[in-house]
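Moderator note: this is an archived Q&A kept for reference. The question asked for a predicted structure of one protein chain; the sequence and the answer are reproduced below.
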Amino acid sequence: MTAKLPQARWFWEVETTRVIACAAAAVAALALAAVAHADPSDDANYREQLAQYGIAGDANAIAWGHRICNYVSNGIPPLVEAHELLENSPQLTQKQAEAEVDAAIMSYCISVLGGGVQIIQL
């Protein structure tokens, strides 16, 4: 009977690894789902909102918008994202960074979040 214990132990280690891998894949898929369904009208809405604050709605801004939505959808507070954006885009003012985060939430992830995220009050 002791000869079978290492085999059983190996089996459980392999199965545990598979379960963890599947769970990680599921979490990753859910995290990306918030951004995956964006359509061109979302981009147009986002660019329009950015233009109101003098922010270029280029491809880099669009990428940031999707990134912001992804992180906020996973529980990162909007103000943390505004600070991160400000650190990576020194040409922006604090108000512009906050506006960009709000625009991303309203354009890309409001339907995913069901309106449950409080946007930054400008």
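Archived answer notes: The chain has five helices and no strands.
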